[in-house]
Protein 1
Amino acid sequence: MSYDRIAVIGAGAWGTALANVAARAGRTAILKARDPASAAVMAQTRQSPHLPGLSIDDRITVTGDLAALADADAILLAVPAQSLREVATALATITKRDMPVISCAKGIERSTGAFMTGVIAACMPQAIPAVLSGPSFAADVVRGLPTAVTLAAADADVAAALASALGSATFRPYHTTDVRGVEIGGAAKNVLAIAAGIVAGRGLGASAGAALVTRGFAELMRFGRACGARPETLVGLSGLGDLVLTCSSLQSRNFALGVALGEGQRLEQAQSKLVEGVFTASALVKMANEKGTEMPIAAAVDAVLDGRLSIEAAIESLMTRPFKAE
């Protein structure tokens, strides 16, 4: 099982970083930009507008032509969660049977409640769905700073081969067959990071921040167990690891949005870039309710984003919940 030609769809910060990962691992790397004009500029300048001051590896072929991906051995989808269905549908017309298609989006499809591998399976029945997630910022990855993530596929051999194909001295993928657990960690942590940002933006203190992250992780664990995820996945890189990173740095769009909301900005003002947690919150809460799983922090975030609760009321609702054993 050999994956020597790795294609990445989505030439934003994360897609560009992943193409660099593939090139550093010694693979033939192709980066697909949204349109040919953008691809031509990036190919010539070896720069991404999303990663100022950082270079695109010279070994990467940058293209705007979807057909150029037809000979790829595996494809990474580094596109927003709410756009993945459209991209996967277009991709289905050119890809080979049993090609791994790896979601790198951390979200839940808002209109259907589907996780990303479910969207891939529905749109590309000939493909092998997989997911890559974990504590990673694109700028760190492009710089070659040490990063560890989780790569999951239902077939253990496929997961291991993909991890080997992408791994290098600075990028370490751990592999697993717990696809759902990896997806839950990536999706839920974005919603919880908005809550952590609100706490920071409101100036509620380090103690409140630690409590928020801890109780948020308890929610993630409850939801994961209800969905059949393995505990070791949820306490691993794609669960606890990603939650810790995303809840502690302004490099996280979700945390930064929460900080802006906590400081008093309206959602329209605060959301200058795509923030996955905004779209995931309602889908996550709906799924939790359907499974009878309590996620009060996620529900509070959803209510704040939807305008049903003020931040003050959301904080009060969490702090006045009935006392119970931990």
Protein 2
Amino acid sequence: MFALVDGNNFYVSAERVFRPDLNGRPVVVLSNNDGCAIARSNEAKALGIKMGDPWFQIKHLEDEAGLVALSANFALYGDMSDRMMSLVAGLGHRQEIYSIDESFVDLTGIRGDMIRRSRLIRQRVLQWTGIPTCIGIGPTKTLAKLANHIAKTAERKLGIYPEQFNGHGQDGSIAQICHLGLLSEADRRTLFERTEVTEVWGVGPRIGKQLKDSGIATVQDLVRLDPVTVARRWSVVLERTVRELQGTPCIDLDHEPPAKQQIACTRSFGRPVTEQAELAQAITEFASRTAEKLRRHKQQASQILTFVRTSPFRRQDQQYSRSMVWPLVRPTQDTAVLVNAALEALKAIYRPGFNYAKAGVMLMDLVQEGFAQGELDWGEPSLPNDQNTKNRSRVMGAMDSLNTRYGRGTVKLASGGTEHARLNPTGMPASRWKMRQERRTPGYTTNWQELAVVKG
């Protein structure tokens, strides 16, 4: 038996923890550069705002409907996620964190009333973090994911709400919990018949369209299919999904996240960038970020890709897009080595006269930390390779510790520029490549200078 626990409208909920004045109001969280809506409160959804709607198309709702738009505060969301996940882990004996706001929990062998246990965990998460959650329970991960969706939508979208899979909190609010194992066959069939097939975990838009074109429009239609026929006509992946919907576990929990195949950092610029020096500052920061992630995952990179491009949406601009893969002499996790390689690639692909709108760095051909590659000495430092690597690792570790303690960018390479050299009238760095985050809330839990202050 599995449970899928997720935070409701997670980014918005994290903001509301520290901004109770946002409760009951339509709120959206915007993507990088305040481009489009990536999270919406229920009130914002009621206004017809869709996921991914560009900000300029919904901006008029600020005046017309009191819409509140906030810039994404990913540091805050990550910290709130860690707090929520640590509490959710108490629901069972194994946990797989699936995304920033979702985790699977293994309930196999746990006795007692799972609805009551889930309600207590949900109340604890709400009391200790302020994040409202929803819990779906089923004999497979796919059914648990579907149960989670049903718990949120059964009354609002499907018009039914069986009492046996839900309960009410002490405050009278509906506790969003669905245990498919407690439903009668008739209730389960009714729910599946009223749920679109595209709501199934693993059924994307393309496969969903193919299924609907074949007359398979609901979850119940998919459950009735023969798995062997599904594998022959579509894929073994969809076959696995059908078997899971039929109650046969095919997907176990991932106790440890798989080793990353690539690590990337890409950003759209707040304003067009034309000078190579500013692009170099951006590439330095992006490469430094990827190097930090690389060390965090205890990996090394053998190649690095650098790219720059103009905006395809600025049709009046001349278009240019170019990337280059730069192979490294040996796998490394050293920030300086990775930044130097990325900057060399930038020199090769940069062309003057263009309004660059986006750039990025990607580390590729990753290997585990400690991987050793032997080669002839072509002018490397005089220290033995293992001693040199050890010393550099200590330097990188010190950089990471200082940046973790005092804030990102406290210690960085000189090619990243100095943020205090030139300030705009608002006191923010004037670098044109910096993202627009004009509506970002403070780092309430991640920055000592931005802690919330309670005044008596």
Protein 3
Amino acid sequence: MSSTSDVIVLGAGIVGSAIAFRLAERGVNVRVLEAAEAPATGSTGRSAAGVRVQFSSEWNVRLSLAGIEEYRSFPEQFGRPSGYWPQGYLFLVPEAAWETHAQGLTLQRSLGAPVEELSPEEAQRWVPFDPVGIHRTTYGPIDGVVDPHALAMGYLAMARERGATLHLSCPLIEAAYQQAVWEVKTPAGTFEAPLVVNATGAWAGEVAGRAGLSLPVTPSRRMVFVTDPRPGDHAYPLTIDLSSGVYLRSEGERILLGRSNPNEVPGFVEGIDWAWLEPTLELALPRFAFLEDAGLDRRASWWGYYEVTPDHDAILGRHPDTEGWLDAAGFSGHGVQHAAMVGRLMAEEVIDGAAHTMDIGPLRHARFLDGDASKSAERNIV
């Protein structure tokens, strides 16, 4: 079997599906190749589902603002659910981190993001916490959560309605660029297109390697612990204690909580690391005393992958070492909230020759070649 198309999109998570939709919307013949048996079952389906504007870099704020706006209007615009709920994000900031965090707050407001500065006492109306060691807090009223699976399936359905083709259980085995065409070999046969977009999330570095390319994206496991139902609990925003790295938020009558493990070995390590629960609770309980009587539901807890780059920012655009290969990966936990605008930008990159709705220069591969990545590294990483 050998099939041709204008563009091959690798990956049917939320990013790949949004790109496929925006390409098909503009009349491009798109073929989506997904390695799994179903779409949106990788990092998209295992996301903590947050969307926020509280970032330290201009491009991340702008990507999130555009994403939130699209997800907020998704039902009216497309007649499909997005699950957007402005549950809010609350950052608890110690004095040592406030100067840097306040710079981000100034940037966010300058770009039109509605973010409030609150005292620890004022922030108690959102979630009860021990204010010891907390200097100030910031709250984003349009930040919140979405349904990543519903969004990905919505984008994919709209792409297919416009002529896109989806192939499941179809991983890229190897790929080669010959006579201005990419030949992508899969278990289902060889697919050909002059352009390939790599949107395979945590697998993007490995997939690029199968095409003979280097891409600094590595997987890093994250755990999400879930409590038993707690009827009558307040609807807590996604709250991040910057002094410890612990975060939590309400999910119906339950509470989700977690903390990144700085000693987590990068790679495709599967399953929940239950040994990480106790160190997480040791830091969470002194700050959030209401967790003391919250039982843990092990069956409801889960794990997933961040797709991490050296500076925790996405890599967008054409690969510098070849023709016809584009990457949209390395979002470092922000893929769900940035997918909407990335879909538009990558369609512009493919069809118009370069993204123009937003300058993606700081997110291109060249920053690693120039040695400038550390200068612009995103600081507000959860």
